[in-house]
Amino acid sequence: MKNVVTIDEIREMELVSSDSFKEYIKLLASDLPSYFKENEGKKQECCPACDSPNYVDQFKKLGFQYRICENCGTLFVSHKPTDEALQDYYSNSQSCRFYYESFISKFEEGRSKKLFLKRCDWILDSVIECDASKNSYLDIRTKYPILFQSIAETNFFKKVSSYRPIFGDLKKAPGSNEVVESLKDIESSSISVISAFEFLDNIFTPDLFIKNIHRILSDKGLFFLTTRCISGFDMQVLWENSNSILPPEHINIFSIEGLIQFFEKNSFEIKELSTPGQLDLDIVANAMKQHPEIQVPKFIEYLIKNREESAYLSFKEFLQKNRLSSHTRIVVQKI
Ligand SMILES: [Zn+2]
User: Fold this and answer.
1) Which residues surround ligand 1, an ion (CB under 5 A)?
2) What distance in angstroms lies between residue 145's CA and the mean position of ligand 1's atoms?
3) Is pLDDT above 70 for 2?
4) One CATH from 3.40.50.720, 3.40.50.150, 3.40.50.300, 3.10.450.50 for 13-38+80-334
5) Using an 8 Å Cβ cutoff, are 52 and 71 in contact?
6) Confidence of residue 277 (pLDDT cuts 50, 70, 90)
7) What are the extents of the domains in the chain?
8) Residue 71 and residue 55: Cα distance in Å, rounded?
């Protein structure tokens, strides 16, 4: 499988000002206890990535217990909230509204726009490289309308559609696009290419989700994902202090080993698995500045405080080459 080292990253929390982020945490802390009762919902008996029943509790965050799989290192929450609680939270909570208004809507500006265009090229180039069909494209829970529009405007795919878009008016996108409300209603083997950006860590039933994706993809169809990865440098160093682990958005954070097992057991061939993240070291440096009480390994503290830009660049390259950044992108093909 391919490992691409490149500059392409859209990371929500790192692009927003710390004041906005502090406000978001405040709202989350006030919202979560009223929407989710501790240990309510279905208990997760095994790892969502590799199905191992062996896990060890790690830490609690905003009322959610996080545990780690002893087999593949994937991090997951102990209980899945009920659908009703989640629906209520997503429809009515202040923190959820703030999240979309303050963070997601800002992605259309400046730096993010360039990153979206690179992401568009990634999809189109990979389809050609893997010799996949260009008949139809489906984006899951579209939250970046500009990316969806960029893909539609290329006329690369005969038909583009979005499953339950989260944000923006997709009707502005040219071409024969449509909005789909239920994956179950999509005909089997009818979609050539599917994407899900920053989505895998949000879902409570990844197994059901990936089985549906496999069902609706056509023969040799491609599935593109971007997600956080718990094997990544900043997440391993910061662990429970990481701003990238926040319930109820981030509840299954797969490791690289977990991702490989997850896709292989669900009959996908991994065509690309890369961690092209650029921000891991900056995220740790930022966390150290904002929270001096956080303990990081001596070596990391020395590197950040005493070395220069050239050392940072070499270190980032090392993380990318060895799939050790936490920003992950994946292309898998149905087999
Ligand atoms: Zn596992």
Assistant:
1) 47, 49-50, 52, 69, 71-72, 74
2) 33
3) yes
4) 3.40.50.150
5) yes
6) confident
7) 13-38+80-334
8) 8
